[in-house]
Amino acid sequence: xxxxxxxxxxxIMDGAAIRRxxxxxxxxxxESNKGVQNVALVGIRRRGVxxxxxLAAQISQIEGKxxxxxxxxxxxxxxxxxxxxxxxxxxxxxxxxxxxDMTIVLxxxxxxxxxxxxxxxxxxxxxxxxGRIMLAVLIDRGHRELPIRADFVGKNxxxxxxxxxxxxxxxxxxxxxxxxxxxxxx
Amino acid sequence: MQRNLLxxxxxxxxxxxxxxxxxxxxxxxxxxxxxxxxxxxxxVLVNLFYEPSTxxxxxxxxxxxxxxxxxxxxxAAQSSVVKGESIKDTARTIQALGADYVxxxxxxxxVPYLLARTINARIINAGDGxxxxxxxxxxxxxxxxxRFGRLAGLRVLIVGDILHSRVAHxxxxxxxxxxxxxxxCGPPTLLPSGLAELGVDVYTNLDEAIQGVNVINVLRxxxxxxxxxxxxxxxxxSRLYGITRAVLDRVGPDVLLMHPGxxxxxxxxxEEAAEDERSVVHGQVTNGVAVRMAVLYLLGGGxxxxxxx
Lengths: 186, 309
What we know:
The complex is a heterodimer of chains A (186) and B (309). With 186 residues, chain A is α/β, with parallel strands linked by helices. Chain A has a single domain (3-183), classed as 3-Layer(aba) Sandwich (Rossmann fold), CATH 3.40.50. Chain A has helices spanning 15-32, 48-63, 115-125, 170-173; strands at residues 6-14, 39-44, 69-72, 103-111, 132-140, 152-156, 164-168, 177-183. The two termini of chain A are 19 Å apart. In chain B, helix 1 (13-28) packs across helix 5 and helix 3 (87-96) crosses helix 4 (111-118). Chain B starts with 12 loop residues before the first helix and ends in a 9-residue tail after the last helix. At the A-B interface, loops of A face helix 1 and helix 11 of B.
């Protein structure tokens, strides 16, 4: 999305808040699965990927066990390819383990309409038959268009549809924070 | 990317790179339990072939099917073409049937451009006479890049009938754009003029041509396109320009041998060379499907424009 026509309205998380939220989600993932036996994390490109890797690092610190981490590119599963102006670049999906019968925790930065998660569910199921799929997001901003909900949420943020929630991560943006952007006045 | 894929001459480096990277992601789908993705669900792909073809047509059919498009193939021998229908009329009929993509092969150069001006579907050139065969060019570059990890700085030798070969033309345009060195070798009668201006090194002696090459791409002797005699005999051609295992040995252990197929074994390439471990003659089929999936995906994006006419 073209963010140049938008300006920051409010910062809703700083680096410390992001870290604390991920620590809590890591604990919740372990708790709800009674350990991490048979649990794998799959990050949705792009910003779900570093979040999944950070969650895996937290889980290994807490539990002393490594969870496998995969990367999912959902481009070929999008339902808006013929209506968006610039079509997205297809990247590789990297799931170096068999998902069949595993508990997969999908990880993304923002949960909004639910369409990305719908595409991710389809993409994941084409890799095998997971025993269970769960969803972890850093921000849930509401406005769902599909019957989808997250199992683990870093922060619930009420937003208007005219705003953008921008998750800024060191890996891509050189800073750690979450800001709400609103359209510039013309 | 552009609306249509008509040639590699007008494609820029960034566009070729995007196509090759997308093909890499598409190829990865073949390792999954479910190979099909829903990307082009509800879209219609029409293969319109006025010349015989096995691998290109099948490869486009498979590419369309793995992307969930509806695929229809029309070969001229079974269509109303034999009743005298013109290309434009056929194209309009196909448009009326709701085609989103038309893959066209024709013996006359320029027919894909005519279609692109006539109908609103996205047009992919699958070979127009002796002019270009862009998806074959992309597929050859993909295969080279897969092996060497890059294209820039490599030296690629194309051997055979450069004059009549659309594969050679697409390869030359694409490889030059990507920064590879291109050399060609063949009988003087089968080398068009003006190659040097494109930055291509021209040889008539195979032993000189193979010095320091990374890739040898062997072209088929196209007997159907040769109305006059360009060389004395197939036997002489084979002796002077045929690729044998001995030729590969003179180049070295790392050379990559390619042939767009179908090969005249014993003429431009010996069976022994085609079966050599340095040869990917039989391994290019999967790459062809991946490259064509990438092209279909890249042409599919964006909003549909208003009707052309």
